[in-house]
Amino acid sequence: MIWAWAAAGLAAIAIAALVLSQVTIQIGFSQKGKDEDITVNAKALFGLVKLKFEIPFIRFKNLQEGFEVKAKAKQVNSTAGQLLGQAMENIGPEMLRKAYENIRKLLENTLNFNEWLRHMLGRVRCTQMDWKTTVGIGDAAETAFLAGAFWGIKTSILGLLFRYIPLEGQPRLAVVPAFNQTLIAVEVMCTFRIRMAYILLSGVQLLWRVLKVKGGLKAWRNVLLPS
Length: 227
Prior knowledge:
6 helices, DUF2953, 2 domains, DUF2953 domain-containing protein, 8-stranded mixed beta sheet, alpha+beta, single chain
């Protein structure tokens, strides 16, 4: 009997630790000239689970074929960093059209999806926002004007983002004019955190909203698990 109570107590502690743990997602983007790189690092269960997603190659082919994208996923904390998968895809008009149709179906088959999304994003915390842009177009006066325009674009984008996701701390923004040069370089690093409890709760709430729509569960299954 004592062992049963001890096992139950340990299970309760483990569940509480799981629920109270945080999921941390760090997104990095760098672009200079034709070189672009996107990395996403995800950490959960107090660092026991670490995943890294990389998009080291993005190339525009043409209007018909769109972009050629190389991506790979890796489990960072496994032995020698286990590669989970990699792929080379063309993101063209047809793929974008299908993605749009799938998103439209999911929205139509979810009760008040926008309301659910706002509530979920309100639980996310942005703990880091670093955004540096270096820009130059050869002429000093025009470069200064363009740098000012970039400041306006940045503040507008972040103002919209932080309407939905609370910001903790001060964002570090910089626009560096490169006078007498022709270049554009962007470096972005941002970190988001959310408790596992909110992820689980949001999942249950989303399922409830899907079930409230007739045929909603079937529509989601057809989109996420196509035959």
